[in-house]
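Lab notes, practical 5.
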Amino acid sequence: MEDNPLAVDLSAAREQLLELLMDDAMDDSVFEEIAKANMDRPEILQLLLENPNTPDKVRQLASSGLSVPVKRTSESVKAQKPVEERTQSIFQRLQKLSVPEKILLALRGGKEMRTLLLRESNKDISLSVLENPRITETEIETIVRSRSTTDEILRRITRKREWIKKYGIMHALVTNPKTSPGVALPLVKGLRTRDLALLSKDRNVSEGTRSTAKRLLIVRKGL
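Output from the prediction step:
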């Protein structure tokens, strides 16, 4: 994997991949990078002009590359699809991409793309989602709370100190039955006393995690 998640060659990417990236883009910089990397590819510049989310600045850049009049965003005839339909469409189009292309989207895609790619059975793809610089702490907490999240993803999350410092993420890791004791036990001591009490009675977590919570609870209460 690249040391810099942003260091991907958009100039060599297939049209289908770039269209997906545009459809799920969360900020203007994605459109600008695609345009600048593809000024010699008229089919990509045309995609930028047709996309209703393309910023006017980038639309102007694409128009200059094609030598056509600039159309403002409001003039775009391509209508936005409902969120549910859009997500389904993205999922279907993802199935046609190669593993390297999915990894690129995992590193660069927006929230919908990240959510879908996190479910991929190929760990290179799912783990790449965690390296996406746009992933939020709220997303990480949701991932950690999910009982469908793999142990490998949970372990990778614990390696990022800035995430583990967040109480919601730490608490979610400890209370997720899928979290292995080796990951959960070192985090138990960071829980608040009220949450320790609940954890000590939680039959969904491992016996080791419950026992550790009970011992810490006794120490804190001075019994």
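Observations recorded by the TA: Residues 136-223 form one domain. Residues 143 and 149 are 7 Å apart (CA to CA).
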